[in-house]
Amino acid sequence: MMQVFSETQVEEHYKMSDAIRDIEQAFEHLEDIQQAQRTVIPTGEGAKAMLYMPCVDLKQQLGTIKITSITPDNPKSGKPTTQAQIVITSLDNGEHKAIIDGSYLTRLRTGALSGIATQYMSKADARILGMIGTGGMAYEQFLGNMEVRPIDTVILYNRTTEKANTFKQRILKDYPNLEVKVTEDVSKLVKQSDIINCQTPSTEPVFKAEDVQPGTHINGIGSYQPSMKEIDYNIFPKADWVVVDDLEGVKDESGELIEANDEGVFTFEEIDDELKTLSLNNQTRKNDDAITVFKCVGAAYFDLAVAVGAYQKLNQS
To answer: Is the pTM of this model over 0.85?
Structure first.
C-alpha cells in the first residue's frame, strides 16, 4: 500500500541536520546513483514552469521522481510559489512505495547545499549573514547557514521591504537572541557580510561585484534558468574558489555562468570544483581573505537523498 506523507509530517520529523548528513552520505556512493537531466517546461511568463527530476539509487534499490510547479503569482492568492511531490519507487519490484510532499524537502535540500558550501568555503568564524531575497526559499537558506557557522547577525534585503520585515519577525520568533537588521541598501549589506546568500529569480544582478570584500563567501541558489542572473558574473574572475553543485547542470541552467562563459569573462573550464569534491576530501578555504562563490542549480540526486532519508525516518517514528 502506498504511503502518503504531508509537508507537516515531513517537517516535524526531518530537519536541516538530517538533510546535510544524507546529502553528504550520497556523495560517498555516487557511482550507484543515476539521474537524467532535469526537464523544465515553461508554462507562462518569467519563472512559471513545470519541472521533472528523475533519479535512481542502485545501492538502495530505490528511485525517485520529483514533480514541481513554479507559479510566481501564487502568493497573491495565498498559495506557495513552489509546490512539489516526490514519488518513491522500489527498484526490486517496481512498486511505488510513497508520495512525499516535496515543497519543504526542496527548500530543505537547497538550504542544506548552501550549508555544506558554507561549512567548507566560508571563514570558520563567519558570523554576519547577509540575505538577498526573503521569499519562499529563504528560511531554509538561513537555517543551513545557522547549522554550520556561529551566526550572530543577519542582514536582510528584499525588493519589497515589508516582506523583509515579516521575515525578520519569523527569524526572531525562532532565534530571539540574534541581531536581525533590514536594509534598503544592498551595497551596505554586501560590504558588511561574511556570507552573502542570494535566493531570487532575478534576471539581472542583485549586487555589484565591486562591493564584495576580501574574505566573503557567496551562495547563489535563486537562478536556475538561463534567463536568470542574480549574481554579478564579474565576481567569478575575482574569486579564489568557484564551486558548483552540479557541473553539467550549471552549463545548461546557470544564467550567470552561461553568460560569463559566452562573453569570455569566466569559462566553465575555470570552475574549480563540484561540492561533492569538497565534502569527500574535507577541503576548506586556505586563506581568510579569499572570495569564494558557490553556485547551485539543483540536481535530482539531492532530492533523492533527502526524500529517501525522510521516508526512512518517517517509517522509524
So the answer is: yes
